[in-house]
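Can anyone check this?
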Amino acid sequence: MRLTTIFLMLALALAPGALFAHGEAPQAAHGGMMQEAHEMWLELVVRDKDVTLYVLDEAKKPVPSAQVSGTVTVLAGGKPHKVVLSPAEGNSLHGELPVGATGRVAATVSLKIDGKAMSARFTPSA
C-alpha cells in the first residue's frame, strides 16, 4: 500500500509538466504576435486597418483557413473594435479595422476550428 501511495504521488507531481508541455512558440513568420490557444498556435498581424490571423496546429503545421471562422476584437485608438475574420489563402484569415493600428496591440480572438470553440488574448508584451 505504501509503495502504491509513493508511486501515485510521484506520478501526480510529474504529470503537470507532461500535460502542459507544448514546446516553445514557433517564430512569428509574418512579424506578428504569437499566442497558444487550446493546442493551436496563432499569429496576429495588425498593419494599419488590415488584421491577419495565421493558424498552426500543435505540431506547428498550417491549418487550412476553410476550417476556421471567428472574430478578433482589437483595442485601437482607445476603443475596442470587433472584426469578423474571413478565410484567406493558406492558413490565414483576414479582416479590416475601421481605424488604423499597427504592431503590438491588445486583442482578443474567438475562433471555431472544425466546430471546436477557442479563444486567445494578445497583449502588447506577449
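Reply from J.R.: I decoded it. Residues 77 and 101 are 8 Å apart (CA to CA).
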